[in-house]
Design a protein that fits this description.
The complex is a heterodimer. By secondary structure, chain A is α/β, with parallel strands linked by helices. Helices cover about 40% and strands about 20% of the residues of chain A. Chain A contains 21 helices and 24 strands. In chain A, helix 5 packs antiparallel against helix 6 and helix 9 packs parallel to helix 10. In chain B, helix 3 packs parallel to helix 5 and helix 4 crosses helix 5. The relative contact order of chain B is 0.12. The chains are: A alpha/beta, B alpha/beta. Chains A and B meet through helix 1, strand 9, helix 7, helix 9 and helix 10 of A and strand 2, helix 3, helix 5, helix 11 and helix 12 of B.
Chain lengths: ~650, ~350
Amino acid sequence: MNKIINDFSITVGTVNGSGSSTANNTILRAIFKMGIPVSGKNLFPSNIQGLPTWYTIRANKDGFIAHHERRDIVIAINPNSFARDLASVVPGGAFYYADDIKQPITRADIAVYPMPIKTIVRNDPNVPSDFRDLVGNMVYVGVLAQMIGMDMNMINAALTFHFKGKQKPIDMNFNAVKAGAEWAKANLEKKDPFYVEPMSKTEGLIMADGNTAAAIGSIFGGVQFAAWYPITPATSLAESLNDYLPQLRKREDGKHTYAVVQAEDELAALGMSVGAGWAGLRAMTSTSGPGLSLMTEFAGLAYYAEVPVVVWDVQRIGPSTGLPTRTSQGDLTFTHFIGHGDSHSVTLLPGDVYECFEFGWKSFDIAERIQTPVFVLSDLDMGMNQWISKPFQYPDAPMDRGKTLFEKDLEEIKGNWGRYFDKDGDGVGYRTFPGNKHPMSSYFTRGTGHDDYARYSEEAEVYLKNMDRLKRKHETAKQYVPAPVLHTAKGATAGIIAYGSTEAAIFEAQRQLETEHGIKTEFLRIRAIPFTKEVDKFIAKHDQIFVVEMNRDGQMNQILLTEYPQHAARFKSVAYGDGMPASAKWVREGILAKYERTVTSDQKSVSGARKKASAAKTSSKAKPVLRSKKEAKPVKKTVAKSKPSAKKAKRK
Amino acid sequence: MTETLPMAGATANVNLAGLSKNEYRGNPSTLCQGCGHNSISNQIVSALYEMNIVPEDVVKFSGIGCSSKSPTYFLNRSFGFNSLHGRMPSIATGALFADQHLKGIGVSGDGDSASIGMGQFKHVMRRNVNMLYIVENNGVYGLTKGQFSATAEKGLQLKKQGENPYMPVDICMEAVVSNATFVARSFAGNPKQVKELLKAALAHDGIAVLDIISPCVTFNNNENAYHSYAWGKDHEEPLHEISYIAPRNEIMLEREMVDGEIREVAMHDGSTVILKNLEKGYDPTNRFEALRVMEESQQNNWLITGLLYVNTTKPNLTSLYNLVDTPLNRLTEADLRPERAALDKVNALMF
């Protein structure tokens, strides 16, 4: 049997609340420490204890570590998902299971390894009885380690990290790992092809989750006030603030330069943050879709009253409560237009854990420079899962507090100023903060119509002038928001626009499109709205642009259509959202379904698409990535779907 | 601030802060003539003037409604934030973290605080935010032209609404059970008491709730007013007649109430409230007693006035956070951005 080295996925099926996350993170971290590109995705239910939960790990020597539907190795610990887990193993794959589960093994095309987890743990006198289930999870780590060749020292390093160097739990868990490994060595015969071998591809990299990164970034951005309300998957962002603020902003006098308040709900969470932002603090809140719905009212006020505040939306899939523990990019249009009346927001779109850190500090600069709420859209996959990242880098610019006036400034201008007076022509006025002792410092903030001097006004001209200025301010924002990231390719026949956490899946899909279908693509990852000139340029360059995103309706596509009506025919929406992290499979299939060989010809493009569809089928036999009939199915859509666009082309 | 000080030898009346009363005033009111809210605004001006509080040390907050407009009518020199319906407490909570030396003055109404804002009202109480929280309580929605509010008496008649079928919310009772540290009630037509309670509330460190019965002059209605007038007449109280005859004038008590006194006062809409001053010797530091007298007055349909409850031992919200002495909104990058070495440490902390 040919060995498959550093290129497979592991799925662990356990019971929610059984403490398997330590074990799964240990596998992930040990593989990372072995220098192998790896990702881990926790596919968990909205439940505290009892429901089935899965953890998937993908190791890939080439760095393609997006979510992968293929299940090469499955570890089944949960009797309730046993049959499903068994059925999910790819032919030729490996199936490990806890041998206390007495259910029929119906597969002959896979390697099957029973593990006497309970017996092994019971035989260890050092494991207290109430720790047996918890520590038992480490037995499968040991068995797996032995069978795929994981480095025991790296497992130890992972446990040392997890237990923050506390020797007792490290030993207890590591002994269970060793016991599992020893048992496997003595009793199991290797019958599957999957192995890990050390590489050096993760050197100098760190592993972190986006919520932690966002919190740390915010701290380096000088956050002074955060109000929040618990909601999956955003909770750990605020909790990370509580974890890291005391260490990172420690002062000799023991006093605090910040406050974190758990509010009574999301309305109050943003309300407090808006109050603090208005009064001159770097203020933020963090939430997810349902919370953002509640915050809409304050978002509109902050837009109109021009209050800087940062709102993190760690997206989960909606509508409504939706699937609370599944990921999505479904809040984009909502955030973009948030609030009643005419409004548009500044939105930042971090694409990985590093950018969660970077946008953590940058978002405050933008919010205070533009004097507006800034929304940062992360998602559950990025926010809660461990990602490989380059180390966080110190902000490369000093804090930008925007236009402010303190006592001495007012002294100089003899108190002659107007809060909403556009002195500089960029739409952004000057701010003063409560506590300013100059008698001309104050102004009255309101969500009602107001003039340059913040006075109440219902005059039509005053209203229009103000709304025009707000629009001008949005233009100004383009100078300050992060530019997109362009991945160029010579001879590209199509462009891809995407944002957020889908990058890894798109890289992999790009390679598949090129090697299996001969389609070369250029990829622009948008990192902010309003769109900067780089986006204009990219769109003008490509005749067909696939807008890839994790939602049903193609929300980025909708915004692009609105912003670039002159290029409307170029955009092809590749939108899909089932709550799972993006995979190369749906990106590739989505693009293939709408790809046109030559946009200007009519019938040719249809036949071209047909040819391509059959090519996809053919190549699917050769490549392991396209296997089952089910996977080939969406390709059929290619022909049907490409027809209307071909007709459109003909009409031209 | 030198330019606001009086010239040497000038005869201007100034307080110990060197400010004339005019410097505490706001814009002319756009509320209805005779509205109790205007009287309250005037008393706020007087109280702050007499207490020598510098306007720059005060921040005004409000929600939405007639009452919430009133912060424009006093303290022009103070910062103000007229926010969202029922959400004033959260704005104030966040803003007051920016400078813990500032005093908040929030003006809300029964519509703003007892309905949509009930949640935030109760949470600002339990957090003991350092602010005076005035509820200008008239039992109706004025700006939307006369609907029942949640503090309206059961059985009250309004022109378009008919009879109010629900039991009222008692602002003071809600405040006390939510662990507010200063709770008082007054009547806009009793300016002396209003001012004294305002002063006591402003001196209180923490949340101070002042529920002020403030009659609405506009949404009265003749038919019902007759009805109420008749009802009032049965009770033979002198004051309701005055209010009925001159409905566009602000309702004022003819003379101060004394401790323990019960007095019936007719509102502009013809309904009647019965005020009862707290008894002499009442101990406002006793929470049980406060709840008891409120329960008793509810049963008797009295609106008990005076300082109902005070607790000076609880720390205010910001003091719980052990903040630096410098106001947070004056800190600079040196205070706020950790050093480069700290980030190296963070990276080392990550796996």
